[in-house]
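User: Here's a chain of 434 residues. Predict its fold as tokens.
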Amino acid sequence: MRYKSPIFALLAVCAGAYPIGTTAAKGIEAEEPSAAAGIVAEKEPPRPPADEPIDKAMQTKRRPKIYFTVFNNGYGGDPMPQGEQFEKLLKAITAEGHFNTVLCRYTAEREALCRKYKVMLLADLLASGCHVYQNPKECEALCQQLRNNPTIVAYHLWADRLGKSGAGRARDINNVHRWDPTHATYSGTYQSGGIGALAKSDFISYYDFAWKRGIHKNFPNLLAAWNTARTHDNRLGRYVETDGGRAGAGNYNRELFIQNSSIACGLRGVMWFIGSRIMNMNTGQFNELGRDAAKVNAWIEPLWHEIPKLGLPDAIYATPVTKDFNNNPVAPGADGKPVMAPGLAGHEFPADFWLKPVSGEFVMGISKYDDTAADAVYLANLNAYAEQNVQLKLARTGKPMLFDRETRNFRALPGDGVISFTLEPAGAALLRFQ
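Assistant: Prediction complete.
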């Protein structure tokens, strides 16, 4: 929605046409994602019952088998290029950017090009003409057409402040699950506002741009999403900033920290915000921010097929810290008590837990591995700028295996009951136990 007069534009904001901080239609260079066409009065399609049960077999089947990292240039309109320009973009984001997914409106031509470059398509159901609630008949027809299509990784349903629209967003999730039970849904909100309405989404997502808006909110928002996901055994998504630090320097550390700390808490698909900040959309050339994002993607790429094998964490534990996320000293706690990182109080390791931290400062998600009884843990460094010499004591029988990112395989660790390794700044480690 565009207004020629700034006065009319201000009145439109006050009237709720779209929230302050978003841009209509394309979301280009916006500070927040833009749902655009989604922020208007709804033409309500029928609502399924709120307690409509989840088909657990289909839920498991439609869950992506790869960690997907999404190139996104906005949604709610159709901001992606077409034809040769789209092909040029796909070449760049795969060869240089280490992205494996693109968010855009579905077209047969785009699908064919995505197949050619082995890119997954996150289909935007906020695009005009196939909008999930403005055009429910057309949207249903598209979803039914795309059933079992291997190029489609998921449907994108929402990514904005929910306000009073939570019931409508829950309805959209239910509808899309009925229209196409073979593909996942990806729905988000701002921070944790109204996040319970998204509980049945396969990916419960949010944005907070924590490095710019308050890094102390990183774990509170992560844990709110994790607790919501636990209600139906779903997974986390997240819209991450591309410019959380100084380009070409600390930005890489900060963005890697965000992803690894999120993966420990259940993140299984990430959307970078926003394409036009990291790439010249006309030439397909990445800038320094884009090269930072590519470096983060390349770090995680060896784990693409392992991360989805981790179930939603059953528990999340963390060590006390002596340095903050920025490697600054942390003041001692009252009466000399250990200090937990912001948001992680109450997530201390239990005294009787079978894997005991001896040294290092990290957060750990504990999951089952690949739908088996085997345990796996993902440890993320709680310091974006300093390495951690981690030592763990295994207080039960079990053969520890450490994932080696260079060989892309697990390797056995010494079986003396003590596990030792180094976490690089903002880095992480994946362990499984035979």
